[in-house]
Amino acid sequence: MAKNSKREQILVYHKKYLIGKVSSISHVVRVMPQYADLQHFAVTQFPLAAVVGKLPVPVEKISGRDGSAVDIIISSLKIENYVYLQERENPDSLISNIVDDVWAKCYSNVTYGGLVLSTTLDVSEDIEYWDPFIAFKLTTEVKYKHSTGGI
């Protein structure tokens, strides 16, 4: 069931079509790497994005015709996008380019091809420096409708 879950479909779409198609990001993974893991990526794989989906939180429950059971749930799903760079010359400009590209891509398809009802992007103001890496986080939040049979 997990491969067919609406949550999984959204995360695959997000990785492949949104973050994966941002030209300023070279490589996308679905696991947040630790510092030691980052050292195993090739320099050509940076900027690297790690897409990590949270669990959905129900925000609205819709009852069926007679009101005796819940048939449809609208849930909020946060997707954390951790971006890692190895840029010493001009990291601030590269960060601006990446955030600009992700912002444009995110808001150009707010329904994920009909999978979700709405999308918002939250840009974290914090930038971390772990020599030789620079990291920052963007959080995408989508609201989507699903049945009581799964997430």
Global mean pLDDT = 92
The helicity comes to 10-25%
Q: Using the 3D structure, state the CATH architecture.
A: 2-Layer Sandwich
CATH topology: STM4215-like
| Secondary structure tally, helices | 3
Series of H and E elements: HEHEEEHEE
The H-level CATH homologous superfamily, spelled out, is Phage tail protein-like
Radius of gyration: 17 Å
Q: How big a fraction of the residues is strand?
A: 35-45%
Notable traits:
151 residues, alpha+beta, STM4215-like, six-stranded mixed beta sheet, 3 helices
Structure, briefly:
The protein has helices at 6-18, 35-38, 91-108; strands at residues 27-29, 48-53, 57-63, 70-85, 118-130, 133-147.
How does the SSE layout of this entry go?
Elements: H1 6-18, E1 27-29, H2 35-38, E2 48-53, E3 57-63, E4 70-85, H3 91-108, E5 118-130, E6 133-147
Parallel strand pairs: 1-2
Antiparallel strand pairs: 2-4, 3-4, 4-6, 5-6
Structural overview:
This protein has one domain (2-147): Phage tail protein-like (STM4215-like), CATH 3.30.2000. 23% of the residues lie in helices and 40% in strands. The chain has three helices and six strands. Strands 1, 2, 3, 4, 5 and 6 form a six-stranded mixed β-sheet that branches. β3 and β4 (70-85) form a beta hairpin. The termini are close together.
